[in-house]
Write a structure and sequence with these properties.
The chain has a 6-stranded mixed sheet, covered by helices on one side. It has 2 domains: 1-54, no CATH class; 55-138, Ribonuclease Z/Hydroxyacylglutathione hydrolase-like (Metallo-beta-lactamase, Chain A). By secondary structure, it is an alpha/beta fold. The chain is 24% helix and 28% strand. The radius of gyration is 16 Å and the shape is globular.
Length: 138
């Protein structure tokens, strides 16, 4: 809501997580970390997608192709990565975090390693992780 996005794209798995327990998760986070919710009254509520996908989808930002894919579970069942082929960059969300201890309450530890291998197979030049500095270079 802070970005005033016209479009919100979400995997079907992530959308189902929002429907199933989104408000419950919001309430839990708010109670545990109230300092992170300063100005919470200005937040209009949960974010719902305008578009969902299963497995993968491609969007074009002008002439730039952007591939959004689910390549395995890791941090959550709804994880997706965004690959920008012409720049050979990948946005991984919390599948990859740099110098950060991540919350793993929804983690799929048996799958996470394979998901990281799937990211590695892209042989990208840079990764924008969910937290921490960009990872540039092989």
């Amino acid at each position: 809501s802070a970005f005033g996005a016209q479009q919100v794209i979400m995997s079907n798995a992530a959308y189902n997580m929002v429907l199933e327990r989104g408000q419950e998760d919001w309430d839990s986070e708010f109670q545990r970390f109230p300092r992170l919710f300063e100005g919470h009254e200005s937040i209009p509520g949960l974010t719902y997608p305008t578009t969902t996908f299963t497995d993968q989808m491609t969007v074009f930002l002008g002439n730039r192709r952007v591939d959004i894919k689910q390549i395995g579970r890791a941090h959550t069942a709804g994880d997706a990565v965004i690959h920008v082929p012409d720049q050979n960059v990948m946005f991984t969300g919390d599948i990859v975090e740099y110098h950060s201890a991540c919350y793993c309450g929804d983690g799929h530890f048996a799958d996470w390693g394979q998901t990281l291998d799937n990211i590695k197979a892209y042989d990208v030049d840079a990764i924008a992780p969910g937290r921490g500095d960009a990872l540039v270079g092989k």
